């Protein structure tokens, strides 16, 4: 059970962060820190007693049809990564508190950081491939949001976009790969998959599986040639770079290699793919890092290079390679995180990251310089520091490797060469920044930063030394556990500082001296590099590729989409009419045999009015107000039809919606630009006439055909069950709040979202006021005519009463929350109309969002309440009461649901109309005069 | 019997009235004429609904008439405000 809490604690912290941030930055840091800290404490308390071969496991079925289970497992490998993620996370939280500017409230930052932490913990603890994939995608997303933490910087946005595209594309490949793997192994449970290694390696789909999974791992771990997103991601704030892009997230790919090592490794394909890519990345990264003048750029390419080293170690496929790889994961995380933090401090203090300008900082910040130099020495692999140990193991592995046969010398040579460059850029980091003359033209004069921002760096640098001096006493146990998690056993390996004079020792020496020589000769190298190296990079290729795809898509769209609403509608109607008419051509007899109803005079008159109004709407479309009047008439006749044919609910709804729509259109009409009539070509007129006429005809024929047939409608079911199951006799309302209650809940949620969207869109928008009225008439001077106000006000209580009546009895007779909400909303809007915004606002609390949100919450709560009684979501309960005076009363829980609908509708209607009404008001020259107070 | 006959006569008269309203609505000539015509149409519809309620002996018609009376007024008020000021909520 504690496994769940390890993941949940950071998630809770993420949710709490914005709240905590309202109480101050310190509170935010404390809450975020305690979320991580508690999770870390829990891990250490629960997991350390576990011996090397025991593990914690927990599993719940989630979507068994897909093989997706909530299974978590903590073995040695997971433990190593959990501690890494949480411990460094804790230091980064502390660091960020002092690093980010005081104006940043930190709520969003910690929320995103902890969200990322959750995702990362999910990856390492997942015992189900699909679950792992979910968390994998979550790291990509949270990384995207963190890189674009300062969204106003275009560099940050571009970096975030690039990293999202690359890692998400890798995630897609990984998904395909994991699906294949699950298919081969017969289960997505990691325990089963890990046990079927032989089966996987012999399967015919092994190679594509391997390729796809590696693609996912390589994009995440920034392996060549998919590395270019990582330097771009350096646009993120430094704490993010330190945490995500050096210590943890980029290690997810390596983690995946380690996790699936027993299943996929030890084949030739694995060796050539993983080893080859790792070696290339190692060399390329180390070489490029030397030429970066940006402090973070150097560290980014160094990270790429070290990730290549770890990948190469796993690619060797040997047990000791895996040991060295895991060891280097830890060491790299420790020294690289501290280097990034130090770089952040330098950036902070000097105002630039350009190493050609930052020089001689030793004089100004000796303490920080010492810390950074120790960490950089660890990165270079200087003895007595942790980087030395794993690098030595790496050299030893390359020497002892025997896959390449006659080319066996290649691997150690390449490794030494990479070592040379790695020492060279480390020396550059130290010498260029802290010595090498005086700073040049810095924006800020550097000085030693506050003590507290250095604490995380001190902790990490201390770890570099402690691990470097006493590896056996410090990391050995954890490393053994992790190795068991990968290999199932611990091979013999030595963590001694001194192995005697050996080839690896010699390689280390060559790397150290060669690195210094390369650094001394750097200016000549820079020149050679600039002159001879081709300018093409995978980054350019990527951008050219993505631009090409966009252009292609745009051209494709332009060829048949001209953004004309008329054309959309024409296609839509034509297709609908043709598909609907198709069955009619097969000689189906239209008249279904039922008797036709007699035609009475009133219906005939109504039909005539309907037809005339519809045609008049089209004929008079240029006089918009007249067209609107005609549409109102159409609505009126439709309402009449509904009443006459026993659909009172529909009639009431239609009526209310009609008025709200009219007001809405009147508000908008006012702002529509006038102008001369657009001439429509005769050809198009014919097309439109044909389309409209034929689709109308088809619908009429089909309706006639359906209505003259006797059939068993589904309404039988609802009529029979509305009372016993839903507790109401108004079937329409019971369907809305009970049978299809879930739909209604979705609809009011959409309504609420639309209200919020309209509010945001209209906020701060002002539209020009037309000079003249309708037909060049001057606007009336009297803004709020007294008679209108006088008649409107008494209507309000009456309308509210009607609305309440409709709401309360809606379950059993025509009415319900939606209609009641519309009636109440329009009555309130009428007050705005007659007495003005100001007058109404003074008398009405404008808490529309509380109203809307409360409505949605109430409706949801009603649904959830039924869960408490062990019934499915939104099950109705009915209570029969005998009340004095009133008599028998039925209280259905659906009533509460309906009240929720009511509140949402009222809030939305007023919010939208009022905000539209406000558009011009703030701009009008004279403030709206109030109508005289009536006494 | 007398009631039924008078209801039928009333139905015929209301229908005729509505057709005449429609005539005014289509002919205009001015927008205020049209708005008035629409309002009268609403009122005639209310009458028609009440007649229907008596004829078919159903409460549903009355309720619809009630809501129609309210909504018709609000619609007319909005149209008038538009003619007067252009901006109906200010």
Descriptive account of the structure:
The complex is a heterodimer of chains A (935) and B (90). Among the domains of chain A are: 1-203 and 235-248; 562-672 and 686-711, no CATH class; 729-935, no CATH class. Chain A is built from 38 helices and four strands. The two termini of chain A are 70 Å apart. Helix content of chain B is 88%, strand content 0%. Chain B has helices at residues 2-27, 31-56, 59-85. Chain B has a single domain (2-85), classed as Orthogonal Bundle (Helix Hairpins), CATH 1.10.287. Chain B has three helices and no strands. In chain B, helix 1 (2-27) runs antiparallel to helix 2 (31-56) and helix 2 (31-56) packs antiparallel against helix 3 (59-85). Chain B is flat, with a radius of gyration of 16 Å.
Helix/strand layout:
The complex is a heterodimer of chains A (935) and B (90).
Chain A: H1 2-21, H2 25-47, E1 56-63, E2 68-74, H3 76-99, H4 107-125, H5 129-147, H6 154-185, H7 190-195, H8 197-202, H9 206-220, H10 229-232, H11 238-247, H12 251-259, H13 261-264, H14 268-290, H15 295-315, H16 319-350, H17 366-380, H18 386-400, H19 410-434, H20 455-469, H21 471-474, H22 476-487, H23 503-520, H24 522-532, H25 538-560, H26 565-581, H27 601-619, H28 624-644, H29 648-669, H30 682-707, H31 715-726, H32 731-739, H33 741-762, H34 786-809, H35 817-835, H36 837-843, H37 848-868, E3 878-883, E4 887-892, H38 894-921
Antiparallel strand pairs in A: 1-2, 3-4
Helix pairs in contact in A: 1-2, 1-4, 2-3, 2-4, 3-4, 3-11, 3-16, 3-20, 3-22, 4-5, 5-6, 6-9, 9-12, 9-14, 11-16, 12-15, 14-15, 14-19, 15-16, 15-19, 16-17, 16-18, 16-20, 16-22, 17-19, 17-20, 18-19, 18-20, 18-23, 19-23, 26-30, 27-28, 28-29, 29-35, 29-38, 31-32, 32-33, 33-37, 33-38, 34-35, ...
Chain B: H1 2-27, H2 31-56, H3 59-85
Helix pairs in contact in B: 1-2, 2-3
Poorly predicted sequence stretches spanning 5 or more consecutive residues of chain B? none
Global mean pLDDT of chain B: 89
Could you say what the CATH topology of chain B is called? Helix Hairpins
Measured between the Cα atoms of the first and last residue of chain A, the distance is 70 Å
Q: Taking strands numbered 1, 2, ... along the chain, how are they ordered across the largest sheet of chain A?
A: 1-2
CATH architecture group name of chain B: Orthogonal Bundle
Helical content of chain A, roughly? Answer: 55-70%
* Overall pLDDT score of chain A: 86
Query: What is the percentage of strand-forming residues of chain B?
Result: under 5%
Largest sheet of chain B: none
């Amino acid at each position: 059970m504690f496994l769940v809490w390890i993941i949940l604690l950071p998630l809770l912290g993420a949710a709490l962060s914005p709240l905590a941030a309202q109480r101050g930055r310190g509170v935010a840091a404390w809450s975020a820190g305690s979320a991580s800290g508690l999770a870390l404490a829990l891990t250490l308390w629960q997991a350390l007693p576990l011996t090397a071969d025991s593990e914690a496991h927990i599993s719940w079925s989630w979507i068994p049809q897909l093989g997706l289970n909530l299974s978590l497992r903590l073995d040695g490998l997971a433990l190593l990564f959990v501690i890494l993620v949480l411990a460094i996370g804790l230091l980064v939280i502390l660091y960020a508190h002092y690093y980010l500017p005081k104006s940043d409230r930190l709520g969003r930052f910690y929320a995103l950081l902890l969200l990322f932490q959750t995702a990362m913990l999910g990856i390492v603890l997942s015992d189900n491939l699909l679950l792992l994939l979910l968390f994998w995608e979550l790291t990509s997303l949270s990384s995207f949001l963190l890189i674009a933490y300062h969204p106003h910087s275009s560099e940050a946005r571009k970096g975030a976009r690039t990293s999202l595209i690359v890692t998400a594309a890798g995630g897609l490949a990984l998904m395909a790969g994991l699906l294949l793997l699950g298919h081969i192994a017969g289960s997505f449970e990691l325990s089963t998959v890990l046990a079927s290694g032989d089966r996987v390696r012999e399967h015919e789909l092994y190679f594509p599986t391997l390729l796809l999974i590696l693609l996912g791992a390589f994009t995440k771990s920034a392996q060549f040639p998919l590395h270019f997103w990582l330097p771009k991601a350096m646009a993120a704030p430094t704490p993010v770079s330190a945490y995500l892009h050096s210590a943890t997230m980029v290690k997810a790919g390596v983690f995946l290699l380690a996790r699936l090592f027993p299943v996929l490794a030890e084949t030739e394909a694995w060796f050539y793919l993983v080893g080859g890519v790792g070696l290339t990345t190692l060399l390329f990264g180390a070489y490029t890092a030397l030429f970066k003048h940006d402090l973070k750029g150097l560290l980014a390419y160094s990270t790429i290079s070290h990730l290549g080293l770890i990948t190469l170690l796993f690619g060797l496929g040997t047990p000791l390679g895996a040991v060295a790889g895991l060891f280097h994961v830890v060491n790299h995380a420790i020294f690289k995180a501290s280097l990034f933090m130090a770089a952040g401090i330098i950036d902070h203090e000097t105002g630039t990251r350009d190493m050609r300008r930052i020089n001689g900082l030793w004089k100004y910040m000796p303490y920080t310089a010492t810390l950074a130099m120790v960490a950089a020495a660890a990165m270079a692999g200087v003895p007595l520091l942790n980087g030395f140990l794993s690098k030595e193991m790496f050299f030893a592995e390359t020497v002892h490797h025997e896959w390449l046969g006659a080319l066996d010398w290649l691997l150690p040579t390449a490794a030494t060469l990479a070592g040379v460059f790695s020492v060279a850029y480390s020396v550059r980091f130290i010498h260029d920044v802290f010595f090498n003359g005086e700073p040049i033209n810095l924006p800020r004069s550097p000085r030693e930063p506050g003590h507290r921002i250095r604490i995380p760096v001190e902790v990490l640098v201390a770890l570099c030394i402690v691990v470097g001096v006493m590896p056996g006493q410090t990391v050995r146990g954890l490393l053994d556990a992790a190795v068991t998690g990968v290999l199932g056993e611990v091979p013999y390996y030595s963590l001694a500082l001194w192995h005697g004079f050996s080839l690896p020792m010699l390689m280390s020496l060559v790397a150290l001296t060669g690195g210094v020589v390369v650094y001394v000769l750097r200016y000549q190298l820079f020149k050679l590099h600039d002159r001879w190296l081709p300018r093409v990079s995978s980054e350019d290729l990527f951008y050219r590729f993505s631009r090409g795809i966009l252009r292609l898509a745009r051209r494709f769209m332009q060829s048949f989409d001209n953004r004309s609403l008329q054309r959309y509608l024409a296609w839509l109607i034509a297709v609908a009419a043709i598909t609907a008419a198709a069955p009619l051509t097969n000689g189906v007899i239209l008249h279904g045999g039922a008797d036709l109803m007699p035609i009475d005079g009133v219906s005939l008159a109504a039909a005539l009015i309907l037809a005339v109004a519809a045609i008049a709407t089209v004929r008079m479309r240029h006089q918009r107000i007249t067209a609107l009047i005609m549409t109102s008439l159409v609505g009126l006749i439709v309402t009449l039809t509904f009443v006459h044919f026993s659909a009172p609910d529909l009639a009431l709804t239609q009526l209310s919606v009609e008025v709200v729509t009219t007001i809405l259109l009147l508000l908008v009409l006012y702002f529509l630009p006038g102008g001369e009539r657009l001439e429509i070509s005769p050809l198009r007129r014919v097309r439109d006439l044909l389309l409209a006429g034929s689709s109308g005809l088809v619908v009429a024929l089909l309706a006639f055909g359906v209505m003259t047939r006797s059939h068993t409608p589904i309404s039988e079911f609802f009529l029979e069950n509305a009372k016993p199951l839903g507790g109401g006799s108004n079937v329409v309302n019971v369907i809305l709040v009970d049978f299809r209650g879930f739909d209604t809940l979705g609809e009011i949620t959409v309504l609420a979202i639309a209200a919020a969207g309209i509010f945001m869109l209209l906020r701060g928008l002002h539209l020009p006021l037309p000079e003249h009225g309708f037909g060049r008439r001057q606007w009336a001077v009297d803004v709020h005519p007294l008679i209108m106000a006088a008649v409107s006000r008494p209507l309000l209580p009456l309308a509210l009463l009607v609305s309440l009546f409709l709401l309360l009895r809606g379950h059993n007779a025509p009415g319900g929350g939606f209609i009641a909400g519309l009636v109440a909303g329009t009555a309130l809007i009428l007050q705005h109309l007659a007495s003005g915004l100001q007058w109404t606002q003074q008398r009405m609390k404008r808490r529309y969002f509380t109203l809307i949100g409360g409505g949605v919450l109430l409706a949801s709560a009603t649904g959830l309440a039924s869960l408490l009684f062990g019934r499915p979501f939104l099950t109705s309960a009915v209570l029969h009461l005998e009340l004095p005076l009133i008599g028998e009363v039925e209280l259905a829980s659906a009533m509460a649901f309906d009240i929720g609908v009511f509140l949402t509708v009222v809030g939305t209607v007023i919010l939208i109309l009022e905000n539209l009404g406000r558009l011009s008001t703030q701009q009008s020259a004279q403030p709206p005069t109030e109508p005289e107070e009536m006494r | 019997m007398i009631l039924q006959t008078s209801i039928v006569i009333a139905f015929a008269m209301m229908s005729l009235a509505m057709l005449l309203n429609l005539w005014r609505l289509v002919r205009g000539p001015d927008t205020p004429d049209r708005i008035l015509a629409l309002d009268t149409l609403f009122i005639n519809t209310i009458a028609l609904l009440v007649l229907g309620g008596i004829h078919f002996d159903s409460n549903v018609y009355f309720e619809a008439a009630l809501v129609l009376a309210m909504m018709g007024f609000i619609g007319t008020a909005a149209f008038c405000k538009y003619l007067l000021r252009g901006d109906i909520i200010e």
